[in-house]
Specification:
This protein is an all-alpha fold and about 550 residues long. It has 22 helices and no strands. It folds into two domains: about 240 residues, Growth Hormone, Chain: A; about 200 residues, Growth Hormone, Chain: A (Up-down Bundle).
């Protein structure tokens, strides 16, 4: 009989094997999601490698390529160094393939389950780092683009959306808070990975190596351990599971867009609601990425010598003074990363009470006001107010990412929210290209026409504010999804075939309740495993940000 039962047992990576038994503690799932997001979030911190890689051949100085060397020649040249502009294409590849992967394989993820998706994400992300390490050793930049940019980008996408549907189902009473916890990790990945990579490169550097290849290999090993641990830690709730006393906050139903029914992913993109939310996310992220990309140079060029107690304009600063204000600007960037991370948890949690539509209305109205006020504040020379405005803006940028999965669950139900979220992330890919291009070209146009550096950002800020105003209109137009788009009972039954028999909250079963209580020590250990590196990253960032106030 045992052999028959064993033969009927589904494969290890089958989603049925991830259904939690009665008594499972749902607070074990967020650390699993964070373990993956904190690793793939290093994509934001890849710029720490640009300067060392730009001297990979010369070691102490960059060896320029011949002037007549074409683009294809630069991809395979082994005797001259790469330009940072070539290395910077990694960012574009990251987010283009993140969006493409989530759109293409989001439906597969819903069928395969978060465990299998998390393992595939780990293999792609960490395998991409190993390919990049080989590319550094062979000095072939196309291998970095293929390894980390393409393959790693696919891992980014699958890792990013792998916990979304699961967390929303475990926390129907706190959808925003649950997704905020996980997506907070993506914002915090660079905060840990950046300083860690810097220390590793210093450790591995030799007279013949800048230490990047060895750092890639080390990070791949560390990340693989954490990501596999997170993937294997995923569990999905049994059909019909509800938390004890877990009625949704009344605020979730404000705006009248929350449903208890479900829309199929193939049908979701045929609804006006999907494209309105797509536009809202794209416009909000375009503006946020624009700010994020220009924050450091903007601070330096607007305030110049005033950052170090001098009235000297930026253009007249000495090399020593420029180095000092660059250090202060790095602290400013670190401070913004803290607000980006904190905003993901704060705003997403707040949306459980305000409602998702109202929360986005706050993002867009307050964002419009703050963006439009930046030129005035800059001309007045108020550094504290300038820094404060940027911090609030970046908190809402992060909060927008964390709130959007819960917004989709409110509109389209929870059955296929992971796949729908995957398709929606093409808005992020679009914004990742549109935002930097828009900001950089406008700035260059201004400078080419004689506008002073300190004033070259005003038009850009007004344009970004206009994008947020357009986003507010799109958000205001969102209405409940029409009945014809929801899945039929037959479709829902087919979706639920993997689930075991329905059971109520484990509190109804004394034995299950005992098991849930016994999981408390594992919950503590899981959160410590995540909290210690995250706390180290916060501490390193705070130390760097302190330079801004000295």
């Amino acid at each position: 009989m045992n052999s028959n039962a064993q033969a009927l047992r589904p494969p290890f990576f089958d989603q049925r094997r991830t259904v939690a038994a009665p008594g499972f503690n749902r607070w074990l799932v967020p650390p699993a999601a964070l373990a993956i997001h904190l690793c793939i979030g290093m994509a934001y911190g890849f710029s720490v490698f640009w300067l060392p890689l730009s001297k990979a051949v010369g070691i102490t100085h960059a060896v320029a390529c011949p002037a007549d060397l074409g683009f294809l020649g630069a991809l395979t040249a082994t005797t001259c160094d790469w330009k940072i502009s070539l290395l910077g294409w990694m960012y574009t590849l990251f987010f283009v393939f993140l969006g493409s992967a989530t759109a293409l394989w989001g439906g597969w993820l819903e069928r395969a389950g978060p465990r299998k998706a998390g393992v595939v994400a780990a293999v792609c992300w960490c395998g991409g780092l190993l390919i990049s390490a080989a590319g550094v050793q062979q000095h072939q930049i196309w291998m970095l683009w293929l390894g980390s940019g393409v393959i790693g980008g696919i891992g980014l996408g699958l890792g990013y959306i792998s916990p979304v549907s699961t967390l929303i189902k475990w926390f129907p009473d706190r959808r925003g808070m649950a997704t905020g916890m996980a997506i907070m990790g993506f914002g915090g990945g660079a905060m840990i990975g950046g300083p860690l990579a810097d220390q590793l490169m210093r450790h591995f550097a030799t007279p013949t190596s800048v230490g990047v290849a060895e750092t890639f290999v080390t990070l791949a090993i560390i990340y693989f351990v954490f990501m596999i641990g997170g993937a294997l830690g995923y569990r999905v709730p049994a059909e019909g599971w509800r938390p004890a006393g877990g009625s949704p906050p009344a605020g979730r139903h404000r705006g009248g867009v929350v449903t208890d029914r479900h829309v199929h992913v193939a049908q979701s993109w045929r609804t006006p609601q999907f494209w309105l939310v797509w536009a809202v996310l794209c416009l909000n992220v375009t503006a946020g990425i624009g700010i994020l990309g220009m924050a450091s140079p903007m601070l330096q060029e607007i305030f110049g010598g005033r950052l170090i107690g001098s009235d000297t304009p930026f253009a007249d600063l000495s090399a020593e003074q420029l180095a000092k204000i660059a250090t202060i600007a790095a602290g400013f960037t670190g401070l913004l990363s803290l607000f980006n991370i904190g905003g993901r948890f704060f705003w997403a949690s707040l949306s459980d009470w305000l409602g998702r539509k109202t929360t986005y209305a706050v993002f867009l109205v307050l964002g419009f006001t703050l963006y439009a006020s930046i030129p005035t504040v800059a001309s007045a020379g108020s550094l504290p107010l300038f820094v404060g405005i940027f911090c609030v803006i970046l908190s809402m940028y992060g909060g927008g990412f964390a709130t959007i999965p819960a917004y989709l669950a409110d509109l389209f139900g929870t059955s296929m929210v992971g796949a729908i979220h995957g398709r929606l992330l093409t808005a992020w890919s679009t914004a990742g290209v549109l935002g930097p291009v828009l900001v950089n070209y406008i700035r260059e146009y201004q400078l080419d026409h004689g506008i002073a550096r300190a004033a070259a950002y005003s038009v850009t800020m007004y344009i970004l504010a206009g994008l947020l105003l357009l986003g507010f209109v799109c958000n205001a137009l969102i209405r409940p999804v029409a009945d014809r788009h929801f899945m039929t009972s037959e479709q829902l039954t087919a979706r639920r075939e993997y689930a075991p028999q329905t059971h109520q909250h484990p509190a109804a079963d004394l034995g299950a309740l005992t098991r849930e209580t016994s999981h408390a020590r594992w919950v503590l250990l899981a959160w410590l495993a995540i909290g210690i590196p995250l706390g180290w990253g916060v501490w390193m960032t705070v130390r760097k940000a302190a330079a801004l106030f000295h």
